Amino acid sequence: MTDTTRFIPDRLQSPLQRRLKSWETLLLAVAVAIFIVNSFTSPYFLNAWNLSDMTFNFTEKAMIAFAMALLIIAGEIDLSVASIIALASTAMGAAVQIGVGTPGLVLIGLGVGVLCGAFNGFLVTKMGLPSIVVTIGTMSLFRGISYIALGDQAYRGYPSDFAFFGQGYVFWVISFELVLFAIIALIYFVILHKTNFGRAVYAIGNNPVGAEFSGIRVARVKFILFLLTGLMSGVAAICLTSRLASTRPSIAFGWELEIVTMVVLGGVSILGGSGSIPGVVIAAFVMGLVTFGLGLLNVPGIVMSIVIGALLIGVIALPRLWEKWRA
Amino acid sequence: MSKQLLMSREVLLTSATVLLLGIIASRFPAFIAPANLANVFNDTAPLILLAIGQMIVILTRCIDLSVAANLALTGMVVAMINVAMPGLPVPVIIALSVGFGALLGMFNGLLVWKLAIPPIVVTLGTMTIFRGTIFLMSDGKWVNAHEFSDAFKAFPRTGILGLPVMGWIAIAAVVFFSLIMTRTTLGRAFYAVGGNPHAATYAGIDVGKTQFWAFTISGALAGLTGYLWVSRFAVAFVDLAGGFELSVVAACVIGGVAIMGGIGTVVGAMLGALFLGIISNALPVVNISPFWQLAISGGAIIIAVALNSQANRQKGRIILKRAETAT
Known about the structure:
The complex is a heterodimer.
Chain A: H1 15-21, H2 23-41, H3 48-55, H4 59-73, H5 81-97, H6 102-126, H7 131-150, H8 164-167, E1 169-171, E2 174-175, H9 176-194, H10 196-206, H11 208-213, H12 218-244, H13 255-265, H14 277-296, H15 301-326
Antiparallel strand pairs in A: 1-2
Helix pairs in contact in A: 2-14, 4-9, 4-10, 4-12, 4-13, 4-14, 5-6, 5-7, 5-12, 6-7, 6-12, 9-10, 13-14, 13-15, 14-15
Chain B: H1 2-27, H2 34-59, H3 67-84, H4 90-114, H5 119-138, H6 150-154, E1 159-160, E2 163-164, H7 165-183, H8 185-195, H9 197-202, H10 207-233, H11 244-254, H12 266-285, H13 293-315, H14 323-326
Antiparallel strand pairs in B: 1-2
């Protein structure tokens, strides 16, 4: 991995050709294939309510995955996201015990998320520490605080109108979470693909020193990206807590790996510099469909994780094997 | 010059550990009784063994997140072999566990070497694949104490000069790998590859192949630890040592191993592991809820990495590594 050369090809193929050969198209084909296979293997699959349930498998994770995609494109990573969910959820649970209402809970959830993101961002950008180690540390720290506060107990008793975020439906089978997912996807699409900020993110990922010398405030952009990742973890914490209606310190355990898998599966280079939001959206659906389809076939969760793990390595290994084979 | 600083780094960590022991002893003198210290060391032996392997991997600018899953899978394999063939002598079991662990490590190494897939992606994937494989093999069932042969269980617990065999194995590994790292071509190659991959290539070192061997060593140590762990606790199950990979990385970071590669010693990794081991053993003694442990080790990682970067900055090893440092 040390001798990777990145090619920035001039436009040698027509735009249509490029689009057909792109990662997103391949991934979309995989998603469609899984969808078709699923609908043949299980009679329960093609049902509007079941499909609506399926979306809960990925909506909360995908919200974080969008922010994480930007962070990884910029050459950093945040492994503490699941622990931020735990801490935000614990803070909301504690607030419920002293009688805070739904608007207050939402503010607390978002606030804790942003604060945690700011803490990560401070350590990485101001102290110049490698993000992978920093966030492994804060991953233990944030969840550790939840354990100190809760031990083996759980917070319950969330107000009934708080349930809307994770359990409410906007229209027929369209859940609030799905709508939120779509809105957030759109926002991140605009941020990454249509703004100067988005171009700066790519520039930093491709060459941080070059970006610095071309006048991009690298540290500030990265700090904002950590803030956004924290904020999205707060949003996910609100949705998840509302859906489960309880908080344990082990909430969302191991999600950081699934979220990174989602981002990498979506075609974002783990080395930074490339990737797209539509790719992450399709990857979210692929993962949701795989988990849901296997679940309908009574495959245990841990076996699904083999599939996810193999998918993660496979989607990167196969194209490279193919190139080696042809060479 | 750098050797002196490296030494002082270990001296610093040793004094921090002694200080920690002193604080604990001031309230609970029994904690530093030789018999108890031997106990603490023995308890920490698995962490030391894994930290040595992880250190070598991190030296070559990689990371191995699959060590705990490798440990659990190898542990399950030898447990099932023992159940099927109780007569198999312990040396054969040990050879099998080292060999099988090394094979799993080689799989990681091959993907990194031959396909140049980023190590974090590879080992995230194999981590879930290994765990899932344990489930497929064991059907989710536990292998319990009464099913093991007596010889299988007795080996790591046999006391020699007041220290169980498991502790002696950790000491032997520290001595052995200290010699490997300082006295052999391969050992120096690990440092060269991490310190400057391009220079290493021009010096005739195959970077990918060196990384492959680092993963193989890490896997072999994880396999050995798998047998020791399973036989000591006389149980094997899917979630054995779940999340332990992060403690291992934490031990390395606390032990002064630079996550950017090229810097670190076997003794440092051992000291980092011991620091964590003492904390986890002391918490129940000083009457702090074990729920504090996660947060404390998280805090320790962040402080350690901040100190590391300070030390490295003085040494001037990292030149314009990150754009932030240019500002």
